[in-house]
Amino acid sequence: MNDEFDNSLINCLQRFIKEQDNVFANENVYGFAFIYPPEGQSLACAIGTTERLEEVVYKYIKLGYKNSDTNNHEGLKEWLKWSGPEDGWAGLHSDAFSELNAFLQKLIKEKKIKLYSDYLRKRITKNIKKIRKLAPNCKDCVFLFAYDFFSLELANYNKRINTIENYLKWQKEQIKAESLSNLIKKM
Fold first, then answer.
1. Residue 49 φ then ψ, to 5°
2. Per-residue model confidence (pLDDT) at position 70
3. Considering only Cβ atoms within 10 Å of each terminal Cβ, which end of the chain, N or C, has fewer?
């Protein structure tokens, strides 16, 4: 099961990377996000680049957004960098993962994996070296796991989350809190 899943993951990532080839070839990638809900039944990816970040910063400045920093441009840039993939990240609405998502649904339906089991994160983590090799121009970029767009935003504001290791630890805490919350709702 794990080998079949890993092969599907790599095939979908290859499709996604090929689909986003222009981004990887012509832009400076700083972030590669694996986005999935805490239930773990689907996956999407998005790519953050400095070029798209600049476009979003200018868009927000034109709309009148201000940052409390003296340099409004740099302040907004820092704030928007990890604010969420919907702000200029590439590939967010790709269909490249439909095969993998169908496979995940099948595994859940057949009770081979459980909802909230963190199976996706574990399989991605196990394959991260392969994934890093697949992604051109992504040697130094940060690979993120996000349960939703809000997770990236919170990571930017919470001062104790200043490394990717702390970010992943924080995510685990969020899963536990959310699972507990869902358990309480069911009672």
1. -130, 155
2. 65
3. C
